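sanity check this record:

:::
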Amino acid sequence: MPSNYNDANLTGHVRSDIVMLSSMLNGQQAHVSALERGRNDDKLTLLTHISVLLTTGDDNAPLAHSVHAVYGRLTPAALECLVCSENVPQTEQETKGTQATPALPDPGRLTSIPDAGDVNRGSQLLDEWDKADQRNYSLKDHLRDVFQIFSSLKPPSATESLEAFSFFIHRRAFRKLGWRIKEFLTHLNDSPFTVLKTVDFTRISAQQFAIPFTLAEYDLLQLSKFPLGDERPVTLSINSDNVKDWLDGFQQLFNFLQGFFPCPREEPTYALPTREAVLGGVGSIQLIMKLKPVLKHILLVSGVESTLLCAKASSSSEDSDAFQFPATPQASRERQPDNDRATDTKNMFAAEDVKDMFTAKDTEDTSAATVSPPSSEDDEDSDESSDETAIENEDEKDNLPLTFPHTSESVRRLLQSMYAILAWQTAVNSLSKHLGKFAEVHMRVQFFECDRVPRIKQDSRMKAKLNEIFPGLDLGQKSFGRMSRSWSRAKVHAEATLMAWVFTQSKMDPSKFFEEEIPIAASKQCCYLCYRLQEKLNDFGSLKFRLPGSHHGIFAWIPPRDVPNQILVELRSDLLRIVSDVSAQHSRQTSTTNFPVVNES
């Protein structure tokens, strides 16, 4: 390894170097502390919730892998948003460019959404949320519809409108929601509640929870067979004698939820959910949100983390297509068929039961006097994690730790998977504090999109070059093939594109940006390179970008257009240091080492 990182002569161009090095490290984790934004960052929180509401999936991409980024602000006069459309892949065919002279990404196009403030159409979308037969929506069309609904959220009917908005957004996100439910119930190769029942709960501290329930929610509690008292209003009690009954209740509740939003057994049979399924599903989600303090109390018990960790270790996992260090990868394993956890039809709600349960007006006040810890309105913070299907939402007011101990990674992962299911309801709930403002402001929405990036040519001689520079890696043909596949899938990330565009525009016309701080939300936590780009742009100019946080995973990454060359050189140096550390570590080891894999964002 050259003593000066910048002396490493790789491809002949810093842009191609970054693509190549990030492709080598694709799926790896940078060994730095994950950073999270402050929970009182209201500007970024609003944008993050808007980003969640824009993430729905379609028949071709039910998990909505593509990432978008949102920049904006709420002023007394307007809600202004600029949405950058998705990560930008490369063209299918190689262009005439070379590694030494790669073609730049497309400069992009900025268009306005002219009818984003159409109040009448927004009201119609809410009134007819269960009527549309359309299954797939482009990001631009869905963006327009969401902001039209924002425009219609005005008193005195705003509360009822929010409820309809929840039905509307969950119906559109039904495919992604269904897969998130399945992931939660199967990522341990068994239900997490079945796994948790093997824990010794004799030392769990007895606790009571006073949580107000609607009549529909109380009926669902009974139908799920949670251990309830005989009197109403209900005070929930958990102790060593009934904790496993609680786990059975959670299992049944999630079974109901999966029945309302199932994954198809055979793609692409994605049937639009019925009105009754949406009502039942949203009602189940709202109940799960209220019961989170109980589940968290269970997860804090000693022995839970080790039990979840063992279950995860013993579960079959799929091979990643990430670049492997060293060159010889582990033997391939056949993909295990998914264990369909279809809900037992005997436990499903009938359509009429769902109508009665979730549409009937409550006639009884089920509130209770506060018993520690008190419940409250869910006011949750959300940001996307490294997992491609998880949005992490943490409670701020349930008097339980916002984060679990550092050693509780498996517990955190389980909660993260559950919060991903609740993300849309969390985002809808968050709008309640802005309803008064939405009624008074003008909606100004712009959409930024780019064409595919000209493919950067790969050089077959690079394997020898890399082995010369990093002899400790001992790269073989299989490893180099993995790197080449990652290279071909490298993208320009949406948040990086948006940061670079704002940075360039501010240099051309500083009056466009009245505030020095530029919050940018993305539909996932940003990767290591996007976060490093933010830090370097902040050091370079007067604007200060703020991203939701980073999981510090490294992915095959194409630098956006108009990033100063000095910053590109620094990013390349960062990657060279990481590869050098990996090479040195491998040289010291006598056995095969595989690094932890992070799912691509």
Q: What stands out?
A: Residues 5-127+439-588 form one domain. The radius of gyration is 25 Å. The mean pLDDT is 79. Residues 379 and 430 are 7 Å apart (CA to CA).
